[in-house]
Design goal:
Elements: H1 2-10, H2 33-42, E1 48-50, H3 54-63, E2 69-75, E3 93-98, H4 100-114, E4 120-125, H5 132-145, E5 149-154, H6 158-166, E6 173-176, H7 180-184, H8 186-195, E7 200-202, H9 205-209, E8 214-218, H10 220-235, E9 251-256, H11 257-263, H12 269-274, E10 277-279
Parallel strand pairs: 1-2, 2-3, 4-5, 4-6, 6-7, 7-8, 9-10
Antiparallel strand pairs: 8-9
């Protein structure tokens, strides 16, 4: 949340000085979100920052139509019913969107470049996340276009994760959807993937720093900073209805060379040259 506070600071708001921040965390259990949103509304907060994508954003929107809400990392907020349009959100909600279909296609493209002979791919998704279906569809479409058979596997709890990897179908590669529950289980997922020696693509560099092979996605830090800046503008009197939904402009490609060596994968020089960060 330091990036969010940085964005607030750019608008002149410093936590502990001229603004107080109340934190609530569902720990990946999305059924807790409505109660947490109700708690914040009961505190009469001036606005809500719904971090972590669709689950928190939808819970906040369902809880209030008057308190301003800023969301982060929501794929297709129009289709999910959060805003009327990207340019003119309307209502009390705005924030940062993501390019789900384009992002999934790019991840498949990068895996194909990394593993030219790839034929099978597992896409790991959380079915309790409203954006999960959209992302799985985009991955399947991108895989089909590249001649790759995509199998979607669901995991919405810790036990689901264990079950998925106990009955692992031994694909050529794996894509792990970028979403809050998986983020809370980051170390466990990276360890489970390593146990099966499967090349895996993630959305965030943090997974690669822990030993994941490769990641491609928008910058979480950049998204949170911009959300903080929007929050500051709203606190100064601007309305969410008039603030266009932001689109990501910074995408990071991160590669772990040590993991590649362990898996016996030789990173193509052209791919390595395009990496924003290389973990050795």
């Amino acid at each position: 949340m330091s990036a969010f506070r940085q964005g607030l600071g750019e608008a002149g708001y410093i936590a502990g000085q001229n603004i107080a921040i109340e934190y609530r965390w569902a720990e990946g259990y999305y059924d807790r979100l409505p109660a947490l949103a109700a708690e914040l509304i009961g505190l009469r907060v001036a606005m809500i920052f719904a971090a972590g994508g669709p689950p928190s954003a939808l819970a906040a929107k369902a809880a209030t139509s008057s308190i301003p809400i800023v969301f982060s990392a929501v794929p297709d907020p129009v289709r999910l019913g959060l805003v009327a349009s990207l340019g003119r959100p309307g209502g009390n909600v705005t924030g940062m969107s993501t390019f789900t279909a384009d992002l999934e296609a790019k991840e498949v493209e990068l895996l194909k470049e990394l593993l030219p002979t790839i034929k099978t791919l597992v896409y790991l998704v959380n079915p309790t996340n409203p954006s999960g279906k959209l992302e799985a569809e985009a991955a399947a479409t991108a895989g089909g276009a590249a001649g790759i058979k995509v199998q979607v596997l669901n995991a919405g709890t810790e036990s689901d994760l264990e079950s998925v990897f106990e009955s692992w179908p031994n694909p050529d590669a794996l894509i792990v959807a970028g979403e809050p529950f998986f983020d809370s289980q980051r170390s466990r997922i990276v360890a489970l993937v390593a146990r099966h020696a499967t090349p895996a693509m993630y959305s965030w560099r943090e997974n690669v720093a822990l030993g994941g092979l490769i990641s491609y996605g928008s910058s979480i830090t950049d998204s949170y900073r911009k959300a903080g800046a929007y929050a500051g503008r709203i606190l100064k009197g601007e309305k969410p209805a008039d603030l266009p939904v932001m689109q990501p402009t910074k995408f990071d490609l991160t590669i772990n060379l040590k993991t590649a060596k362990t898996l016996g994968i030789s990173i193509p020089p052209t791919l390595l040259a395009r990496a924003d960060e290389v973990v050795e």
